[in-house]
């Protein structure tokens, strides 16, 4: 344990970032799905900073009732305030809280990291919204519509935009064009992550193109056009209207196989770039992103295996495997793209990708 820490400190030497902490997380019986997501979120710096600010404000206001948000804030505070630069922390209270809140994560079975991330972000939002309602009348400027659908003045409350939304939420537009009258119906929906179908020997860019490709609705799938007042053939496509600050991409590696009657893991090779341009899906073609974390699924099947994470911090790449933390070379990231052949000894595949939007001065 100490050896790992000192080894990492030696590897970084005088390049060890000022004030940064690299701590492994203890595994409490198959909690690697949780640990890998926590590391990715900890190194999502804007999210971490806002969570620590929330924790500091909470302490000054007095003891809040324990919930998932206070447990996460306490854990992040515990890591960031360690005297040592490296080591291991046991996220016991947080894991206990997760298991108390959601029976899905109660057993010691292999869990899905993407389901956990979804659960966690939505739970944090619920807690922040309840706190805001309890505090009554949040500042009016914080209330903005999530999309056109929500901006109705019929007494329906516009949703509160929390700092979780500000980091992770984007807006998709679902456009349907009636092929008879050419009327376009657009419906906005919000998202915290994009789940992409994958193909063998593909890339994130091609997966995003497929996500936004045009689909024809005909036969049994015809669309009810309000203008024509009848079912019509139509074309439908999904576009990213407002890209998020932190773009989370979930690769759909677990596919239900009808003939097998169960899920199968797709080990397909999907190239994810260190720098990603979203020009093919967004009206504002200026969205450029930089990869800063990858949650990796290790194993050949969906019901067993292990999760680890790769994280970029201060231009260094680190590998987090529960208690162990080590430095890796940037070139090692490509070994997690997947396998070009069906049966391969490499079972370490990128599963959830975290990209941060580059500000205009960061773009090369």
TrEMBL record:
Task: State where the protein is found.
Answer: Nucleus
Function, as annotated, reads:
Recognizes and hydrolyzes the peptide bond at the C-terminal Gly of ubiquitin. Involved in the processing of poly-ubiquitin precursors as well as that of ubiquitinated proteins. Required for the correct development of pollen.
Q: Which reaction does it catalyse?
A: Thiol-dependent hydrolysis of ester, thioester, amide, peptide and isopeptide bonds formed by the C-terminal Gly of ubiquitin (a 76-residue protein attached to proteins as an intracellular targeting signal)
Q: Which UniProt keywords apply?
A: Hydrolase, Lipoprotein, Myristate, Nucleus, Protease, Ubl conjugation pathway
State the PANTHER family in the record.
UBIQUITIN CARBOXYL-TERMINAL HYDROLASE, UBIQUITIN CARBOXYL-TERMINAL HYDROLASE 4-LIKE
**InterPro entries linked:** Papain-like_cys_pep_sf, Peptidase_C19, Peptidase_C19_UCH, USP, USP_CS
Which GO BP annotation is one of this protein's? protein deubiquitination
Q: What is its main location?
A: nucleus
User: So what EC number does this one have?
Assistant: 3.4.19.12
Keyword Nucleotide-binding attributed: no
- Entry-linked Gene3D superfamilies: Cysteine proteinases
Report the SUPFAM superfamilies cross-referenced here.
Cysteine proteinases
PROSITE patterns annotated for this entry?
USP_1, USP_2, USP_3
Q: Name one Pfam family in it.
A: UCH
Question: GO terms for molecular function, please?
Answer: cysteine-type deubiquitinase activity
Q: Entry's CDD domains?
A: Peptidase_C19G
Q: Where is the USP domain?
A: 23-358
Its recorded name reads ubiquitinyl hydrolase 1
Q: Which family does it belong to?
A: Belongs to the peptidase C19 family.
Question: GO cellular-component terms in the record?
Answer: cytosol; nucleus
Name the source's superkingdom: Eukaryota
């Amino acid at each position: 344990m100490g050896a790992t820490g000192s080894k990492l400190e030696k590897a970084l030497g005088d390049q060890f970032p000022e004030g940064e902490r690299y701590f492994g997380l203890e595994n409490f019986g198959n909690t690697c799905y949780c640990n890998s997501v926590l590391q990715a979120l900890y190194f999502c710096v804007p999210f971490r900073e806002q969570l620590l600010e929330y924790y500091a404000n909470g302490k000054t206001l007095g003891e809040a009732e324990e919930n998932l948000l206070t447990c996460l804030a306490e854990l992040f505070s515990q890591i960031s305030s360690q005297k040592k630069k490296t080591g291991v922390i046991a996220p016991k209270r947080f894991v206990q809280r997760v298991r108390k809140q959601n029976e899905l994560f109660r057993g010691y079975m292999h869990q899905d990291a993407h389901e956990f991330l979804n659960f966690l972000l939505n739970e944090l939002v619920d807690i922040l919204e309840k706190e805001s309602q309890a505090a009554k009348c949040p500042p009016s400027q914080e209330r903005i519509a999530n999309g056109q659908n929500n901006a109705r003045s019929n007494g329906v409350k516009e949703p509160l935009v929390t700092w979780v939304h500000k980091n992770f939420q984007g807006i998709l537009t679902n456009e349907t064009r009636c092929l008879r009258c050419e009327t376009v119906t657009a419906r906005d929906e919000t998202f915290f992550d994009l789940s992409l179908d994958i193909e063998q020997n593909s890339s994130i860019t091609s997966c995003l193109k497929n996500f936004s490709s045009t689909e024809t609705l005909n036969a049994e799938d015809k669309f009810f056009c309000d203008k024509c007042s009848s079912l019509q053939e139509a074309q439908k496509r999904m576009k990213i209207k407002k890209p998020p600050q932190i773009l989370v991409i979930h690769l759909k590696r677990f596919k239900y196989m009808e003939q097998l009657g169960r899920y199968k893991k797709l080990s397909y090779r999907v190239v994810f770039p260190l720098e990603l341009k979203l020009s093919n899906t967004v009206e504002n073609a200026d969205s450029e992103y930089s990869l800063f974390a990858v949650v990796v699924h290790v194993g050949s099947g969906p019901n067993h295996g292990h999760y680890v994470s790769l994280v970029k911090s201060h231009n260094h790449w680190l590998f987090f495997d529960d208690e162990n933390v080590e430095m890796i070379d940037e070139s090692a990231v490509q070994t997690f793209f997947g396998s070009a052949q069906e049966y391969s000894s490499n079972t370490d595949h990128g599963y959830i990708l975290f990209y941060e939007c580059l500000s205009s001065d960061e773009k090369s």
